[in-house]
Amino acid sequence: MMTLIDEYTRKCLSIRVARQLTSTDVLSVLREAIEKEGVPSYIRSDNGSEFIAHQVQQWLSNKNIKALYIDPGSPWQNGFIESFHNRLRDECLNREVLLSVAEAQVVIEQWRQTYNNEHPHSRLGFKSPQEFVSFLSDLGHARATPSLRQDLSYTSILKPLTSGNSLT
């Protein structure tokens, strides 16, 4: 599986399920996400061959997207995705017996939709990722892109929460 998370909104933009994933698959997932969400400043990933392939490097460079690779054996450098993978495992994969790739694609996509639309996050004021995206839109901020947004800060947006106000 290849998972793509927006670090700012915690929204899961994609989970590509296949028996094997290549650099072509990585580019396909990134193209689809960018088409829907916009061009990110950077993409953070591990050093898997599908991510460090010349084809991916060239494509990212052409789009002016920085590649941030975590150090080998250092999953804490990509905490957002590690936390997401734990949740995916606990709430979906450990509860299902998936007999085919097609079945896995359907079940995991259903879980992704539930995660995005219903799962509250404490860091997002106990809003779901989609509710947080809507909140940002209501504030007049441009939609988040598939990377950490450097033009917005959690502190400024979530400040109303600390004063007892809600996000909406």
- Going by helix content, strand content and strand pairing, the class is mainly alpha
Quick one: overall form?
A: globular
From the alpha-carbon coordinates, what is the Rg to the nearest angstrom? Answer: 17 Å
The overall strand count is 4
Count of DSSP-assigned helices: 7
Strand content: 5-15%
- Span between termini: 35 Å
Please explain how this structure is put together.
It is globular, with a radius of gyration of 17 Å. It is built from seven helices and four strands. The chain starts with a strand and ends in a 6-residue tail after the last helix. It has a two-stranded antiparallel ribbon. It has a two-stranded parallel ribbon with strand order 3-4. The chain has 168 residues and is mainly alpha-helical. The model is unreliable at 144-168 (pLDDT under 50).
How are the secondary structure elements laid out?
Blueprint: E1 2-5, E2 12-16, H1 23-37, E3 42-45, H2 49-52, H3 54-62, E4 66-69, H4 79-91, H5 101-118, H6 129-138, H7 154-162
Parallel strand pairs: 3-4
Antiparallel strand pairs: 1-2
Which structural traits does this protein have?
about 170 residues, two-stranded parallel sheet, globular, two-stranded antiparallel ribbon, mainly alpha, disordered C terminus
Compose a concise summary of this entry.
Helix content is 46%, strand content 10%. It has 168 residues and is mainly α.
